[in-house]
UniProtKB/TrEMBL annotation:
Pfam families: Cys_Met_Meta_PP. GO terms for biological process: L-cysteine catabolic process to pyruvate; transsulfuration. This is Cystathionine beta-lyase. It comes from Pseudotabrizicola alkalilacus. The lineage of its organism: Bacteria, Pseudomonadati, Pseudomonadota, Alphaproteobacteria, Rhodobacterales. It comes from the Bacteria. GO terms for molecular function: cysteine-S-conjugate beta-lyase activity; pyridoxal phosphate binding. The modification N6-(pyridoxal phosphate)lysine is found at K206. The gene is metC. Signal peptide: none annotated.
Length: 391
């Protein structure tokens, strides 16, 4: 159900499920399948046009998920992938050819950058990294051989907001495809295809899943982009298991309430962090004080629980005094689950077109679904353990 008259929360409750087609079951059942049988030779001969033909090419479980992703992202078509990185890889490889040129935002996810630098380079693709503050000015970087402009907004670890509408307008004038990593918003707070983006990628591992127990990637796109992307997807032999598709669909049903809570708690803790003496800077575009807030407010309807802040410089031994004492905040890769996470990071190592030198230690925080007062108390206790080291 993608009726534009319905609210997004209603759509998420109903998209990608058709009880009448599954004996009345509310949720699409788990279809574990490889072989699909055809009742007649004529049906077998016509299988090229059949939606169900072989498990790797999709099952009712994965088709339901892809239908739901279309509704979530306001897209024409969608593909489900085994991971966020696999979704990124499919997009990049679809437009890769010898002599091609890609424009990739300097604040992009680390594995995106590594894929460009290590693998695409072998195929003769040249990548230019551009400052995330560039909007329409990106036109000066476009060449005749430019095939793809890659965005991520807000940017990984440093949370710069890009002027997506300005970039897509330039790209369309030059016939360049645009793609964006939309994982931060979960597709709930931002629908980039409405601003002219051709392809939206997510690590469904994060907010679509919401429970830190699923690896998944999603790709939502325009009709014009779909066939080329699907061809790459099929050639790589990618597919998503039925159980994972079921978990992703179940996660979508609670996405609205989870995202609203991440938004509220993240903003509360972000405001609080600004007032702590140990904090030099908070990078959260949802805060009115953030330099990207005005642009953010034009494009996003809310913010997720992931943002960053900077504390005074300390060595690893001193950082351990703060981080090792946490019980509510975990340390680990990923984010987007119900639990809170916090890790030190070094965004500078991923920059080449812009600089990151905030004068202290960058910290990435994901605010989960716990009581924000409990989280603030734990952060405060962590800062208190640092005081002797930075006084």
């Amino acid at each position: 159900m993608t009726d534009s008259l319905l609210g997004r929360d209603t759509v998420l409750s109903h998209c990608g499920r058709h009880p009448a087609a599954h004996s009345g079951t509310v949720n699409t059942p788990v279809y574990r399948a490889s072989t699909i049988l055809f009742p007649t030779l004529a049906a077998l001969d016509a299988k090229e046009g059949a939606r169900l033909r072989y498990g790797r090419r999709g099952t009712p479980s994965t088709h339901a998920l892809e239908d739901a992703i279309c509704a979530l992202e306001s897209a024409d078509r969608a593909l489900a992938m085994p991971s966020g990185v696999s979704a990124i890889s499919v997009v990049l490889m679809t437009y890769a050819e010898p002599g091609a040129h890609f424009l990739v935002v300097d604040s992009s996810y680390g594995p995106t950058r590594k894929f460009c630098n290590q693998l695409l380079q072998k195929f003769g693709v040249e990548t230019t990294y551009y400052d995330p503050t560039k909007g329409a000015e990106i036109e000066a970087l476009i060449r005749p051989e430019t095939k793809l402009i890659w965005m991520e907004s807000p940017g990984s670890q440093t949370f710069e907001v890009q002027d997506v509408a300005a970039i897509t307008a330039v790209a369309r004038r030059h016939g360049v495809t645009t793609a964006i990593d939309n994982t931060w918003s979960g597709g709930y707070f931002f629908q980039p295809l409405k601003l002219g983006v051709d392809i939206s990628i997510q690590a469904g591992t994060k907010y679509i899943s919401g429970h830190s127990d699923l690896m998944l990637g999603t790709l939502a796109c325009t009709e014009a982009s779909y066939e080329a992307l699907r061809e790459t997807y099929l050639r790589f032999g990618l597919c998503v298991g039925a159980d994972d598709a079921f978990l992703a669909l179940r996660g979508l049903r609670t996405m609205a309430v989870r995202m609203q809570q991440h938004n509220a708690s993240g903003l509360e803790i972000g405001h609080w962090l600004k007032d702590q003496p140990e904090v030099l800077q908070v990078m959260h575009p949802g805060l009115p004080s953030d330099p990207y807030h005005a642009l953010f407010a034009k494009q996003f309807s809310g913010s997720s629980g992931l943002f960053g802040f900077v504390i005074a410089e300390t060595d690893r031994t001193n950082l351990a005094k703060m981080f090792d004492g946490f019980t509510l905040f975990g340390m680990g890769s990923s984010w987007g689950g119900y639990e809170s996470l916090m890790t030190p990071s070094n965004p500078a190592v991923y920059r080449s077109a812009s600089t990151w030198n905030p004068g202290g230690q960058t910290v990435r925080i994901h605010v989960g679904l716990e009581d924000p007062k409990d989280l603030m108390n734990e952060i405060r206790a962590g800062f208190d353990r640092l005081q002797p080291a930075i006084a």
